[in-house]
Amino acid sequence: MTPENPIEQARQWIAAAKRVAALTGAGISAESGIPTFRSAGGLWRNFRAEDLATPRAFARDPKTVWEWYDWRRGLIAKAKPNLGHFALAQLEQRLGDRFTLITQNVDGLHNRAGSQRVLKLHGDIWWTMCIACREVRSDFRVPLPELPPRCGACGGMLRPGVVWFGEPLPGATWEQAEEAVRQCELLIVAGTSSIVYPAASLAPLARSHGARVMEINTEETPLSGTADLCLRGPSGEILPQIIES
Ligand code: BJW
Ligand code: ZN
Fold it and tell me: Which ligand is nearest to the CA of 157?
């Protein structure tokens, strides 16, 4: 059932909830000019993003995978957070630790919008990890001087500090995300196709613990049928309307 005024409904739910969690995906950064994974603009040199985001692709051809990440790092470095990112930062300011932001994105735009506590389920594009000594470091250079880059400590090959298909999510981060979702009264799911697991299991987990689930997306997703409220449109327009006091 669609309420008469879904924006007003969403505002009321946010105002009434003691604890709120939000799960974001690539769509929230689309209005910052960053292509999503499964849109037409998600293609790079005719590769599908999903075929590059795998340990197998990296083992076979680390240079090509790094070239894709280097290209994305360049786009992200030039991009600015949009009104959707800022609205969620504002919600954190208002609710403090009664709000948890969980993101699948690796672009760091939530941090740049002012969000202080961000649970990054799929890592961060500005982190590198040495495949030999496992050291994780931040590296903000764009472009990187050498592809693939090498570890300053041991000379081993570095990989992007992100989570690829078939790899486990960072354990502590995932546990905090699950806990926040179990505790919340409202889960806002914005700009994700809701097809990548285990992130996509957070909405059903919220519902099974009695929370309302609100989806914000320009298109229908597998979540739409079970969400309590679907707001159709760009998150950069909708989030400010439902969050601004
Ligand atoms: C807008 C908009 C606007 C556009 N406003 N909206 C069943 C259960 C559990 C697991 C599996 C399962 N079946 C298969 C699996 C395995 C797999 C999986 O889920 N596969 C599916 C594709 C079926 N999952 C995994 O492998 C995960 N690991 C795992 O399960 O480990 C188990 C394990 C345990 C112990 C030991 C070993 C293993 C890992 C998943 C990692 C995903 N990684 C990536 C790459 C990250 C690095 C990088 O960025 O390069 O994460 S893939 C990619 O997809 C990226 C994203 O975070 C993720 C989700 O995509 P997202 O954000 O939803 O983007 P899009 O493009 O799909 O959607 C954008 C949406 O925005 C669209 O809906 C638009 O309409 C919308 N939109 N503009 C609002 N302005
Ligand atoms: Zn090393």
Answer: 2
Q: Order the strands of the 99-103 sheet from edge to edge.
A: 118-120, 99-103, 20-24, 186-190, 212-217, 229-232
Which two three-digit tokens encode residue 22?
Answer: 């939000």
pTM, 2 dp: 0.97
Q: What is the mean pLDDT of residues 56-79?
A: 97
Query: What pLDDT band is residue 39 in, cutting at 50, 70 and 90?
Result: confident
Q: What local confidence, expressed as pLDDT, does residue 166 receive?
A: 96
- Whether residue 111 contacts residue 86, with contact meaning beta carbons closer than 8 Å, is answered with no
CA distance 198 to 122: 11
Peptide bond into 148 cis (omega under 30): yes
Q: Which atom of ligand 1 is nearest to the CA of 196?
A: 19
Phi, psi of 84 (to 5 degrees): -65, -45
| Probe target for ligand 1 pocket from 197, 202, 219, 237, with the most ligand atoms within 8 Å of CB | 197
Residues 189 and 23: beta-carbon distance below 8 Å: yes
110 belongs to the catalytic site: no
Domains in the chain (CATH in brackets) are: 6-34+81-122+168-242 (3.40.50.1220), 41-78+129-162 (3.30.1600.10)
Pocket of ligand 1 (CB under 6 A): 25-27, 30-31, 36-38, 53, 104, 106, 122, 162-168, 191-193, 195-198, 216-219, 221, 234-235
